[in-house]
Every structure is written in C-alpha cells, then in structure tokens.
C-alpha cells in the first residue's frame, strides 16, 4: 500500500500543481471581473454626468441638448434621480421664464420623464 503511494507521488504532485494553478487562475479572474465592473460603473456615471451637463446648457446647441435628453433613457440605474432632476429643471426654468427651454425643451423633457416613470414602475 505504501509502495503504491510512493509510486504515485509524481502523479499526485502534478495533480496538486494543476489544482493550484486552476484555483489561482480562478481567483485572479474573479478579481479582474470585479475591477472591470467597477470601472464600467464609474464610466457610466461619467457619461451620465456629461449628458446632464449638456442638457443643462454647457454651450451645446438645442438639438444636441434634446439628443442628450433622450440618451438618458439608456441609464436605467439613474432613472429615479433623472426624473427628479428633469422635473425640478422644468419647474425652475419655466418659473424663470426661460423661453427656449419652455418652448423647445420642456415638451421633450415631459416625454422623457414619462418614459423614465414607465421604466421605474
């Protein structure tokens, strides 16, 4: 029995080596996935923030602002906060008498708010 064990030491050590490589590789892959997910989440937040800046009027033309407004629909994870921001912007800019916003953006904002509310519900 002991002789058989000693005869199989090379096979056992090879199996242990392979197992160690597989476990180490799996651990590294899981870590890489975690880092990648965090990077993607940060990039989405950056993209979302840029859209909000464009909608708020960072010097972009009105058609770019409207396009950015509709791109918000791709950010489901921020739907609730988008509704609050857009609703507040509509009320504030209407109260200030901002004619370009009221005439051109407000109707589009209402459509986007309705679409976002449908996603949240």
Structure, briefly:
It is built from five helices and no strands. The protein is mainly alpha-helical and 121 residues long.
Task: Give an account of the 3D structure.
It is a single chain. Helix 2 runs antiparallel to helix 3 and helix 3 packs parallel to helix 5. The N and C termini lie far apart (68 Å). The longest helix has 48 residues. The protein has 121 residues and is mostly helical.
List keywords for this structure.
121 residues, single chain, 5 helices, mainly alpha
Reconstruct the topology from this structure.
Layout: H1 2-7, H2 9-56, H3 62-71, H4 79-95, H5 99-120
Helix pairs in contact: 2-3, 3-5, 4-5
The SS-based structural class is mainly alpha
Strand content: under 5%
The number of E-state strands comes to 0
Task: Tell me the series of helices and strands, N- to C-terminal.
Answer: HHHHH
- Using only C-alpha atoms, the radius of gyration works out to 27 Å
- Principal-axes geometry comes out as rod-shaped
Number of helices: 5
């Amino acid at each position: 029995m002991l002789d058989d064990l000693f005869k199989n030491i090379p096979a056992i050590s090879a199996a242990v080596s392979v197992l160690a490589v597989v476990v180490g590789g799996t651990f590294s892959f899981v870590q890489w996935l975690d880092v990648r997910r965090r990077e993607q989440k940060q990039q989405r937040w950056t993209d979302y923030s840029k859209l909000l800046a464009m909608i708020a009027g960072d010097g972009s033309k009105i058609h770019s602002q409207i396009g950015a407004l509709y791109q918000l629909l791709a950010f489901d994870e921020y739907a609730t906060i988008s509704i609050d921001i857009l609703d507040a912007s509509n009320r504030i800019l209407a109260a200030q008498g901002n004619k370009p916003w009221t005439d051109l953006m407000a109707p589009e904002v209402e459509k986007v708010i309705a679409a976002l509310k449908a996603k949240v519900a």
